[in-house]
């Protein structure tokens, strides 16, 4: 043993094993009697998204493009993930489909339009998982506005239900309102580094 | 396999590196904070506001107590199986294209990160707020190696530009008001608009402009982690501003440093912590952004991912069956916001990067109680921290335990014998003696029966007088309670 180099891995694991040695360990039962499911209430989602200063629009799927046309300036550029349904985009905007767009172009766009993977009504949260209608994480990060189209069947009531629907191996972004800070005198300021405006279009 | 014992003796965090030890005792440092009325006003405003917000969203959760019990049990279970879970996490991260490094202490961790940054050819890194990197003094280590570390969290940026220290886990710049922040930005922020006003949204916009280019042009990011899932290899970072997303998405190389205790066994366990943390911490139903990633995703985000697993005294904490529960901490800062001592003394008084009640139990265990001997006394044992803690850490129990440990020269730990041992011990340590003196003044002001002063000093001063009468500052402190 003398003179043998000990890897940091062995050292750390050895220390932790030594720390636990000797103690009597009754296995810990985790009580899971917290709520797993809740009653789904779309009004609650809308209320909680709004409470965190997201703008919510409830329209029929056929009206998504018109809604986006109202939100975005005519002639604006919109970053679009490759799998976004084309019918969602109004003719008034210029779509930049992501075929490996560089960060400068993404950041200079007026908005990004994405779909969503899951939403949580109780917390007012939308989750993106990088599916083709949501795209790379950078797409929903650099533009100043994020328009997220959400279908009612993607909404669950509780956090446990959301985790059960998600695939951990995908890159996940949980979004609850626009970027915000309260670091200066605890005064809430919206829009620090992420999109300063979040629009959620909820379709049946 | 039998491991040789020399390999496995849990060690405390080494001195001379990082920020777990203050330059002076808690009472000495607290006295300076007490003399700063602006700081006390800011702190009171912060703690009162966050407490109220948090209480509101906790009241919305009908199963809050069940979630707390589950959170505490998941963490207790994790600690019991920590080595196996870390090995599982390591395997999963590697399987997903990441690289895993182990660091026995701050020196090793700093070296690993510095080498990785150099290997990536970078002379600048962007950082998302991480207590672990503050604990090990990473910014200083990088600086010594010629690498600039840019803090991207607004509060951390204010602290960094102001050449200052964080005072609160959650709102590290709470000791600064808007006018001071404006001055710091005007003085230290390259390219800042000289017409900058002190309006918080203008200050935030200045930080956005300043950092945007840095985010886009820096090839390496360093982050901490709130959770790491052993079952899947998934890492999670919880934040508000989007600077975390920038750091976790834009650079080519991502280096994540986490204390070994941040691992949780299963994906499902996150359903508990994602409810507990935001409500207990910022008082939100959910924080604006949470990022989760598993190794490397081809074509999306950093294409090189390094996970550094840090011990730095955690093994020593784990070895203490009473003190071990401090490793359950999810750094929500709820215990700070309810603590009457923290509210008056402020974060800097605790010396370590971990302030408040959790700091009083964690720092002395990480360093060995000798090096932070006054911290277990930085409490009135009122128990508010225990009630507030989302993972049910019994902080008063650990405080009492550490006090006994600090004076374990005596075999029978009656209140009096502990007090006498403490006296003998502190007389030999001038710094501690000073702390004891101050604390005893505190006791007299607090009441003749020693009410409000933590044992053992209350027991001792009941029968013996220390020289040096009470000072005005501490009278004010307690009078204001
Ligand atoms: S000890 Fe508990 S209350 Fe304090 S920061 Fe840690 S988890 Fe939060």
From TrEMBL, chain A:
Top-level taxonomic group: Bacteria
- Record InterPro entries: FTHF_cligase-like_sf, LUD_dom, NagB/RpiA_transferase-like
Domain (LUD): give its ranges: 107-203
Question: PANTHER family attached here?
Answer: LACTATE UTILIZATION PROTEIN C
Q: How is this protein named in the record? A: Lactate utilization protein C
Species, as recorded? Micromonospora orduensis
* Organismal lineage: Bacteria, Bacillati, Actinomycetota, Actinomycetes, Micromonosporales
